[in-house]
Amino acid sequence: MSKFESRTHETHLSKANEWCQLHTKKEQDDFVKSHGVCWSILNNPDYWKPIDFCGIDVMHFLILGNSKDYCISFLKVGLAGHELELQRKRKSFLKDSKPSKYPLASLGNPRKRKNDDENDSQQMHRRKKQNRTKANLSHIWPCAFQWHQCSSEASRTKSDQTEKSKRTKISRTSTSRYSLRSQATTSTILNLLPFTNDRNSLVPSDCSSADNQDLYPIGDDTPRLKKVELEVLQKVITQTKVSSWFSHLPRKFGFKNFQTLKAAEWKILMTFYFPLALVPIWSLHIPHRDKRVKCSGNFLHKDLLLKSLISLVTLTNMLLKTSIHEEDLDKIERTTNIYCQTLCLGWSMINSKPNIHLTQNLPKVIKELGPPRSLAAWPYERMDHTFGNIPQNDKPC
Q1: pLDDT above 90: percentage of residues in the chain
Q2: Is the dihedral of CA 307, 308, 311, 313 positive or negative?
Q3: Locations of Basic and acidic residues compositional bias (predicted)?
Q4: 87 and 227 Cβ atoms separated by less than 8 Å
Q5: Each residue of 204-252: pLDDT tens digit?
Q6: Alpha-carbon distance 270 to 63, whole Å?
Q7: CB–CB of 60/28 below 8 Å?
Q8: What angle (nearest 5°) sits at the alpha carbon of residue 224, between those of residues 223 and 228?
Q9: So where are the chain's domains?
């Protein structure tokens, strides 16, 4: 900013009009490099004053840049939300799959088929006809009666065997139709699900050692937010009563599409909900928190998480103040350095967004422009895009 001369609203508009009178793109680019001014459609309204309205873009370089990037890239809120969502789905699945005490009490007998009724009526009609024939032949021809009796007994035996086989077939069908699923089949379905087979992990997280054995897998050395901690944050969001004008966060924060939160919602998360959730989150007893991070020397997991989160919350609260004194600038600079150093200690293998470099230059910009007057100032989005194109500009420090 020291490269360009100080100007007022009138001189800035006159330079912008000079830029409009240029004909070639090369002349316009050279004019922007030498004077830092180009024409914008915002200069048309009478109320627009580019010099007075110039300010610090808190939304892009701090809230959408650092706060959102910290939750997604460093805390891994999406991974914790995925684990918590799978745990709740498996809990509901096992709850619905439990059989009742008497599953066959209300089923009743299997319904008879239409063909079975027709076969019974045909057999009854055949037997009546045979009986009439036997009665007619008994007083006319005894030999014929004996022969017919033998043949009728043979046919009756054959029909009884056919009827018995049909009944056996029907009973087999009805038994298989109303039989319960075996335990082996149920366990096979559970094995196909992307969950563990430990049913003790389905109970709500109460910070006991038995329930939290699978929270930190082997080899997971990078500090991040776990599903128990995310569950506490969700309870804080749902149980806290706020005014109607307050920006409300989704109750299932951390699940799908949580990255689409607006800048005001990310600001409320860092300045209101996270400070309320710090005490219950850090009162949880998780064994892996007391282990030391390999790449950070003697720092523990809980120390790095607590230090980075508190420094970012403090930095956000200081930059959103309406009045900032010179003593606050030194505190802002120290807090920014602590935040960057903590990220380098605990997350040395994770690349950060270039927005953090804008944050490191805030004290100098505040001395010249004063505290941020609004949440957003759109020219800084272009500056952030320029910083993103610089190679090796994806490290916190």
Answers
A1: 2
A2: negative
A3: 155-165
A4: yes
A5: 333 333 333 333 343 456 788 888 888 888 899 998 888 888 777 888 8
A6: 9
A7: no
A8: 125
A9: 1-53, 58-94+222-388
